[in-house]
Amino acid sequence: MKIFVVIPLFNEKKHIASVIKNVSKYKLPIVVVDDGSTDGSGLKIIALRDKELRNKNVTVLTHRINLGKGAAMKTGADYAFSRGADAVIFMDSDGQHEASDLLKFIDALKDDRYDVILGSRNLNYGVPLVRFLGNKFASVLMVLLFKVYVSDVICGFRAITKDGYKKVKWDSDGYGVETEMVARIGKNKTKFSEIPVQTIYHDVVKGVTLLDAFEVLGNVVKWKLTLK
Amino acid sequence: MIIGLQIIALLFAFTMVYFAVLNYKRGELSSAEVASWVIMWIATIIIVVFPELLQDFAKTFSVARVFDLMVIGGFVVVITLVGSAYIRTKRLEKKLEDLVRRDALKNKHK
Q: Rounded to two decimals, what is the model's pTM?
C-alpha cells in the first residue's frame, strides 16, 4: 500500500525542520504544502531536504498566497493521489503530532476496513480549556446534526484512502476542513475509525481562534442544509 | 431637523458623485458604470431637495412619510448590493483558489 504523508505548512519555521526529520525516519513519501508562508518556512524545507536529508521523497508544493489549511490539504492530497498514493496521512506542521503515531495510522490503513482514520487526542490532559470545551461542543453538534460521534472533531492528524477522499472531499479552505470532513462522514455514512494520538501544545495563540470557531459553527449549519 | 438631515444627505450624495467620477478617471469604473452611479445619486439629490415629488408614491405603499420610504428603499438597495458583492467575492475566491492550487501542482519543488 502506497501511503503519502501530507503536511500543510504556514509560517512554522521554528518547528517544521524537526517535524520533517522525524517523519523522514518512516521512509514514507512526504508532501509539504507551503501555504504562502512569509517567514521562509518553505525555503527552509527545500534547503533541509537538499543539503541535510538528501531525501528525494520530500516534495514541496507552494501556494503563492495563503489560502488556508483546507486548501493546502486538498493540494497535497490531489498531488499524492495523482502520484499513485492509495492513502494519505495528514499531519500538522507545528510539531503538535508525534511522528511515532504514524505507525498506528499505517496499521489501521492496512486493515483495509476504513476509508478514514481520525486521530483522537486525550483531551483530558494538556489541552487548553477553551479548546477542550469547543471540541466537546463540536462532538455533540455532530451527533445532533449528522448522527456521527467523533471524540476529537478538530484533530488534524488523520488519514484517508483514495476512495475515502472521493467521499469526503471538502470545500473548506480554512480551519473548517476537519469539521467538514466529519460532517461528510456522517452524511455519506463513510466507514471511519478513531485511533489515539499524542499531542504537544507548543503555541496556544496560534491555530484556530475563537473567530474561526464561530465561522466553522456557521458553516456546520450550512453543511447540514446543503451537503448531499 | 429634516433640513439638517437633508443637508447631510446632500453632502453624502455629492461626495459619492465625486468618488464615482474619481474612480472613473482612475479607470476603475467604465463610462456606463459611472453614468449609472451619477444618475442614481442625482436622483437621490432631487428627491432630497424635493421630497414632495414622492409623496403620492409613498402613499401608494402606505408609507406615511417620504423619509421613511427613502430609508426602506435604501435598505433594499444596500441588501441587494451586499448580496451581489458576496456572490462575486465567493466566485473570485474560488477562481483564485483554483489558480493558486493549479500553479502549486505545476511548479513543484522536487
A: 0.80
